[in-house]
TrEMBL record:
One of its GO terms (biological process) is DNA integration. It comes from Littorina saxatilis. GO terms for molecular function: DNA binding. PANTHER family: PROTEIN CBG27172, TRANSPOSASE IS30-LIKE HTH DOMAIN-CONTAINING PROTEIN. Residues 206-228 are annotated as: Disordered. InterPro entries: Homeodomain-like_sf (IPR009057), InsJ-like_HTH (IPR055247), RNaseH_sf (IPR036397), Transposase_Tc1-like (IPR002492), WH-like_DNA-bd_sf (IPR036388). Residues 92-135 form the Transposase Tc1-like domain. Pfam families: HTH_28, HTH_Tnp_Tc3_2. Residues 219-228 have a biased composition (Polar residues). Residues 9-59 form the Insertion element IS150 protein InsJ-like helix-turn-helix domain. This is Transposase Tc1-like domain-containing protein.
């Protein structure tokens, strides 16, 4: 079960004080309801959501170290734990696992990065513009006259070069957590399909292709030459 970071505890406390149920908060943070219940009991007893003093070996890092590690990985999500060990200022004896533990406390866990197409600033602006232009379209008056098409390129040779990224639970598609790379490979099959007004396009079928210019990707909805 996931452990709440200090920031998440503050957010959970605010939701509790606003009257949200413990079960709803637990689902939002992907923790058990008992975790939220203990957080509330601790706050009522101590007035704080910080961890209580506990017996055992003292922490290997200071508050300054913890902040340095957290900010470093927030600025560059693809850094490794070992690189942060070497980058820590001053004398220290830390392991890679200690850095991972501090990142876990901050809600950052190593995940496989989503691989997305390289998007320039102009690409992003055009996507936002397109979305705003079609924001008020309805099925009855607009979308029923549009072909929706999609295509995917399946490689014959697998190239698994996925990188790990430190991110929070809901940051899979955050721009700074996406591993941008052009689609490549040693040949494969292009699968294309289209649907229009609940009808399948008669020409939609797999085809072999090895043209880098059209490999993979998702095409936006396009209006057919003549409406039906």
């Amino acid at each position: 079960m996931a452990r709440l970071s200090r920031e998440d505890r503050q957010i959970a406390l605010g939701r509790l004080q606003a009257g949200q149920s413990q079960s709803a908060i637990a689902r939002h943070f992907h923790v058990s309801q008992s975790t939220i219940s203990r957080l509330w009991v601790r706050f009522q007893a101590t007035g704080s959501v910080a961890d209580l003093p506990r017996a055992g070996r003292p922490r290997a890092t200071t508050a300054a170290h913890d902040r340095f590690i957290r900010l470093r990985h927030l600025r560059n999500r693809f850094l490794s734990a070992s690189s942060s060990v070497q980058a820590l200022p001053g004398p220290h004896l830390l392991s890679d696992q200690t850095v991972r533990n501090r990142l876990h406390e901050a809600g950052l866990r190593a995940r496989r990065a989503h691989r997305g197409a390289v998007l320039t600033r102009r690409h992003r602006q055009n996507r936002v513009l397109w979305g705003n232009q079609h924001l008020r379209w309805t099925v009855r008056n607009h979308w029923r006259h549009v072909w929706f098409s999609d295509e995917s390129y399946f490689l014959l040779q697998r190239h698994d070069g996925r990188r790990r990224v430190y991110r929070r639970v809901n940051e899979r598609y955050a721009p700074n957590c996406v591993d941008e790379a052009p689609v490549h490979g040693g040949g494969g099959v292009m699968v294309w399909g289209a649907i229009y007004r609940w009808k399948e396009h008669p020409g939609a079928r797999p085809r072999a292709h090895n043209c880098p210019a059209i490999r993979g990707g998702n095409s936006a909805p396009t209006r057919p030459s003549s409406s039906g």
